[in-house]
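Supplementary notes for students who missed Thursday's class. We covered one full example, reproduced here. Read the sequence, then the structure, then the short commentary at the end.
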Amino acid sequence: METHVESSMKQDRKGLRDFGARARPIGKAAAMLFLVLCLMIPLGLIESQVASRSQYQEQVTAEIASTAASSQIVVGPVLAIHYSTRTPEKRYRDAESGKMLTKEARTESHVAYAPARKLAIRGNAGVERRYRGIYQARLFHLDAKAEGLFETPADIIQVPEGSLLVEARAAILFSVSDLRGLNSDPDVQVDGKVFHFRPPRDRRFDGVMKGSRLEIDLGTWIPDTARTIAFSFPLKLTGTQSLSISPTAENNLIELGSDWKHPSFKGRFLPNERTVSGTGFSAQWEISQLARNLENALKAENCDSEVLGIEFIDPVNVYLQAERAVKYGSLFIVLTFAAFFIGEVLRRRPMHLMQYALVGLSLAIFFLLLIALSEHLPFALAYLAGAIACVGLIVAYLAGVFGSRRMASSFGAGLAILYGMLFAILQLEDMALLMGSLLLFAALAGIMLSTRRFDWYQLKQE
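Structure (token representation):
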């Protein structure tokens, strides 16, 4: 007869076996999670490689810009009047000592700035690609005309009380950030006379225009006289990748077009009208003095300043697309492992963790193939070639693992669909987060619905 102690020991052993059976799926799931974390290491190395290649692309762009012309910022033209006032020597009696004292004569310099009443810049920008090895930069060639007029009031020169005006000279100031981009020495028409821009001869106007300033000396300015000065000149300018214009006039009209199909409008002022098509773009800005700060406009030095800007972006930035693709690498691995795990559960075809690891590495290798191929092929073709190679490898491997080509092909079809969905997400820049979230939700819903009647306690590990 079985004793009470023996019966109790059998129950304990049965309880341990039941606990072990229940713990096995949890242990394997934990091991798979650890494997996913380990696979983040090669994905991180691949992402750093993408970043390194992208950084080298930026270095090449900077090198090409250093030999041609950098990004351009156009400021002006603006009328500047430099004048000197002199306070004569003055004798006065000191109130405390009663002595006669002398206040020495003093000469002071002043600058008055007059923005153009109207300024119109109209032109077109052609874009040229320049290559260095497999890397390239984009140069624009602006062919435009600037015209407008200054209307100066009679009291633009303010002489302090008790002082005398000594001298007043006027100049038209104009600035581009990189003078190497000026393709010619333009004839500047000012009230019917021809002038030419020249580098500054002194530091009278150093308080404005952070770029390379040019000047036209208009000679002596007659005070207490209102004047209207019309001007026009061709503007042929070369630069790298981006063009910015500072709206220094009281009323600014800028109309630009190009055969480049992928503009990015930047700066503080967006176009009032713009058209982007398969043949290029056209854009128009109308900016009044009420919308801009003259002091900031005169000192514009980057795309975040008081400027309107156009960046001639590369629509097929393979490094940006590859970087975005790598960020979905962990999602790829998790979804694939989940599909394998569900296959184990439903078909009772166990897979070893080493087999999971090999499949995970093949998924990670895809992203390395993608960046390597996309440097020599169009991104879509590189993506297709890498996907076909990896899906084919995994199908061939799983056919041996499962002993069934049909089952391996079904997994391969699912993986191909996953690659296709990732490619669609990469093309939808503005909706990438939404599409990625929907994909995750759909995957989780599929797992939950396919296993909703499964008894997880019955899962055995070989």
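Commentary. Helices lie at 4-67, 294-298, 318-327, 329-347, 353-374, 379-402, 405-427, 432-450. Residues 12-23 have pLDDT under 50 and may be disordered. If anything here is unclear, bring it to office hours.
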